[in-house]
Amino acid sequence: MKAAVRMGLVLGACAALIVACSGSEDSGNTGESPPKLEKLSSVGDGEGELNLIAWAGYAEDGSNDKTVDWVTPFEKQTGCQVNVKLGNTSDEMVQLMRSGQYDGVSASGDATLRLIYAGDVSPVNTDLVPSYATISEFLKDKSWNSVDGQMYGIPHGWGANLLMYNLDVVRDAPNSWSAVFEGGDKYKGKVTAYDSPIYIADAALYLMKSKPELGIKDPYSLTSEQLDAAVELLKKQRENIGEYWADYTKAVQAFESGTSVIGTTWQVIANLIGTDNKVQVNTVLPKEGATGWSDTWMISSKSAHPNCMYKWMDWITSPKINAQVAEYFGEAPAQTKACEFTTEKDFCDIFHATDADYAAQIHYWTTPQKNCVDGSGDNCTTYDEWVTKWQQIKG
Amino acid sequence: MRLRRRMALAFLLVPPMAWLVLAYLGSLAVLLVSAFWSTNSFTGAVVHKFTTHNIVQAFTETVFRVTTLRTLGVALLVTAICIVLAVPLALYMAKVASPRMRLLLVIAVTTPLWASYLVKAYAWRMLLSPEGPLAWAGGYTPGYGLTATVITLAYLWLPYMIIPVFAAFDRVPDSLIDASSDLGASDLSTLRMVMAPLIFPGIAAGSIFTFSLSLGDYIAVTIVGGKTQLLGNVIYGQLVTANNQPLAAALSIIPLAAIILYLLAMRRTGALENV
Amino acid sequence: MLSGGARRAVRAWTVLILLFLYVPLALVLVNAFNSSRTFAFPPSGFTTQWWVVAWHSEGMWKSLANSVTVGLGATAIALVLGTMAAFAVQRYRFFGREVVSFLVVLPITLPGIVTGIALNATFTSALGVTLGLATVIVGHATFCVVIVFNNTQARLRRLGTSLEDASADLGASPWQTFRYVTFPMMRGALVAGAILAFALSFDEIVVTTFTAGPTVQTLPIWIFGNLFRPNQAPVINVVAAALTLVAIIPVWLAQRFGGDPATTRV
């Protein structure tokens, strides 16, 4: 019997090895050019189902707030039943897309290129998306959502990572990121930060202004020394951190229970805290500038429901709906016509939605690569180096 | 063995063994094999290229080493706390309580296992919050961190320790205890010299659960641990954040090896029959 | 017998431990009626609105149904496989009995994350199977086998073979012996094992996270997704409170059918 069990073990291992060595769907591209994939030529009837990966607040179906729902009208109009999986970070979204079981994703700039080059998303036929025509021109054919003039998605909206603080605890109206770095000692144990390696760029951005001798020109193009400097700053910050947040609702809860009083945030978090009205918070875009995101809806190369996905991409960027999303989340809508439909008349002005110059100042999430993303050379640190450093920072 | 008996044995043994060996050991083998692959550094996709880099990194990188030691420490501490909490309770249940009370206590101890693990961890998050009951009642709360993690884990796994220890106490014949006290031993001596060796397999069995469950936990830590990282978080982080499945697999070898070593050590104590 | 001082001491200790076990659960119950959405303590008011919201929560009912399906499926498989293995180990003597016991215990002792990643890697890259309800059931069945195995094995060991031998001597076939003699005596252990296996599968989240596809949500996954949501957290408390209260029934049943409390194995 023991021999039989041992045999079984050996057989199992051999089987695994054979499977492993033979089936090599080597989708790992070296990054030279994205794999050749077909784009849809026409949109037919809906397939009845749509599986999305989305940022929190992008695909609301009334379960959070009965009055906030733009998914149910879509389902009624197209017959596509929508299942939404919330991604907490770009890394989660990349991983989920890789499983091939989703139709589309609202990808930020630090996920898009990884998805494109791995062949996880297909190029988009923008002629099939009527809303695309009136989307802000400065969001089209950008480095993060297109390759050689071919668009790989439909722009959704953009915004900045802001500094949020509890008005009762933080009395001095901070306007600099130093409040969470050197100034964080004042709120020891109650500072919070975004739990993703991409947050290193926030530290780099701060060093860009506070330590110009380091020579950082772009927070995503960091040499080893510049990366180490950012890591040092973050390791010091960790002593003041109470909790890191990836789940936005955890950030809401942390601020409302007093666990966190100051830190990086998205506008939607501040909006939710505002409606609960338990604590008073304020958000500010600090003087050093901010990192941010520019999100694009992308369709999976393995999508089982491409018609529904194209219908969704048109729906979510249509003027009325894009306005709803942008107002609920607190970001600038990609759709220029959305400004006519916002409930707050000067919403677009507050968020500089049509201001191309303002948009150019935000340092959007981008995947750091060896070939510096700002074109300054090819000695920059890569994302997986950032990941390792991030784990070291968290300790 | 006669042929018929042998056939009967094969009939009984093959389905469960086939399931365990193929479904379970097979997938563990796949996991171990994948630890030797690499990833495309830009896209993160898995590439079937052999490398020992992941294994080396998993065992030499400082942050992994520190986290492993921290996690082992937490697992052992949680086990020790559970033993201390469980033994007197189990003694009462087995030897002092009336049969009716015994039944009620068993139900009382087993019922919390049905309350969702997540909700129990979250209940501790509320208890330890700066505005929660602890702060309100006592003015102090340890907040979220390593202490909170240890307390919460001990709370979550306590029933898993109580049940086998209680079963072990129950099997100690009353006559032995009577004989011991007749011979003049104090209660403590009886406990130490007569009962302890007999209940040790039960304690060992319970410790398997508390040790293993604490070693791999990453959810309770996220809920009450503040900025603490345990081995489970690191593995999960490599798998999901870094999209580095091979490195996650390589790191998984650490708890895998730890548990197997622990099980082999416990085998000699007879714990496995009491699990 | 133990002295009076010792008895008093362990009795006091028991009270303390019971308090320790139930205070957090009591807090959950209190917050299920707390009108504040953010659980300020002391509670700001009493309300039953969360129970109404929970009752109407479609996501909750769907995930509950999934959890029950998975639990029943996993328990059924575990009952069959666990009983067979227990019989083989208890009623036959063969080389490698210990290895069998070791193998059966292994799935439940290895950390969930290791099992989860392993199963995920096997399903997605090695076998190319789409993740869904079936893969979850496979994952759960694997660690539920040991519970049935332990309970059945313990009962078989206690029963001994004398009655079965007597039945064979009186001319019954092995199947008749099993059906009329062994099974009725074993039933209680099977019920106890089944209930505990179901409980384990019902609450499992780690392995489930890695083996469920995008559209499959079991109750723990649904709870985890809504745990921190300000609007949903009270509903979670309601669900948890309801589960705990309802759970007393099967626990009591397991005790009653399992017979001797001491032989109930987790």
What would you note in describing this structure?
The complex is a heterotrimer of chains A (395), B (275) and C (266). Chain A is 35% helix and 16% strand. Chain A has helices spanning 2-22, 71-78, 90-98, 109-118, 200-210, 224-238, 248-257, 267-276, 306-316, 319-329, 347-350, 356-361, 383-394, and strands at residues 49-54, 81-86, 104-107, 121-122, 146-147, 150-151, 154-160, 162-166, 191-194, 241-245, 262-265, 281-284, 291-300, 332-333, 363-364. Chain B is mainly alpha-helical and 275 residues long. Chain B has one domain (55-274): MetI-like fold. A two-stranded antiparallel sheet of chain B has the order 1-2. The longest helix of chain B has 35 residues, at 62-96. Chain B is globular and about 75 Å long. The two termini of chain B are 30 Å apart. Chain C has 266 residues and is mainly α. Chain C folds into 2 domains: 1-30; 58-263, MetI-like (MetI-like fold, Orthogonal Bundle). Chain C contains 11 helices and no strands. Chains in contact: A-B, A-C, B-C. Chain A binds chain C through residues 1-5, 16, 19-20, 23, 51, 63-65, 83, 85-86, 96, 99, 101-102, 247, 249-250, 252-253, 256-257, 272, 276, 278, and chain C through 37-40, 59, 94-97, 99-100, 103, 122, 124-128, 130-131, 213-215, 225, 227-233.
